[in-house]
Amino acid sequence: MASLSAHLTAARRLVVKIGSTLLVDQVSGRLRQSWLETLSADIADRRAAGTEVLVVSSGAIALGRRILSLKTATLKLEDSQAAAAVGQIALAHAWQQHLARHDLVAGQILLTLNDTEERRRYLNARATLNTLLRQGAVPVINENDTVATSEIRYGDNDRLAARVSSMMAADCLVLLSDVDGLYTAPPETPGAAHVPVVEEITARIEAMAGKPTSGLGSGGMITKIEAGRIATGAGAAMVIAAGSPDHPLRRIIEDERSTWFLSKAEPVAARKRWIAGTLIPVGRLVVDDGAAGALRHGKSLLPAGITRIEGHFSRGDALSIVTMSGLEIARGLSAYDRADAERIAGRRSSEIEALIGYRGRDEMVHRDDMVLMGSSGS
User: Fold this and answer.
1) Concatenated DSSP letters for 67-123?
2) Does residue 264 surpass a pLDDT of 60?
3) In this structure, are 255 and 279 located in the same domain?
4) Is the entire prediction scored with pTM above 0.85?
């Protein structure tokens, strides 16, 4: 039987989530610099192996509360936001320094819930992250605690990491935690047994989750199970592993104890099933024979191939793509509003900036945001 760690070593795209208790010493409130260096070395190893790596990093509030001398156990929302504003600078600087030692560039991304739920903002966030990855950078992502309110916050970075994993069609999600996986009961409970593999998240698995155990983090096993449901549903394998020791990714690869959540779906296929089966098209793009042929060969839809536009839609809305005879051949997410789409339809991509006044995407519908109808979704 192949090692479960192959889900990590063979990943084309990897998301790594780090909790506050790993990054910040709970006594001093200072960053664990030497530990972060070993994790950065692990990330560099994965990059050298050809894996794109995205980091979801907690720790801004924990760092900021020490800098601002906020001593109370529970912070009010405005205090948390102030702590995040100060701590995020220190956190980003630390990531920049440690990754730079391995010739890696860090890119900071701050997200709110709406950035992964509203299609326009979802497309913007995903486009930025994809660009950073293409340029060889390591995106370092955190919740935008400085502006997010209690009503719209993720509340923990486990679920944020799972949303990022889904949004980016990652193959593997690593949740580095202060525990080494899921147990049949809270680990301190007599008789609690470690669960090495979860093939399906059932009511029984959910019942095993306990309450948060740390003072700095806001998550717990409950949120990790929820993250597992999101990630595996989008086609990624997920692992919960102890992150406190040095070189935590290397330890997972060496098959140290952890819990793997397995997925039966492929990341890209899961995303395309969402486009084809969940979203209702609000408009149609009629394309010429040349464009139709290009789509069937896996190409994106360029403005030049569009002969007619129907319906009222905004950027990020789902559209039906049809041939001149009315046959639906694809569905996808629009890169432009209806008004701008009208201006660029039938024109070359090099003309887009002159036509609409800004440099938009070359594609009307990118192939990553498109599924061919009547196909396997590849």
Assistant:
1) HTT---SS--HHHHHHHHHHHHHHHHHHHHHHHHTTT--EEEEEE-HHHHHSHHHHH
2) yes
3) no
4) no
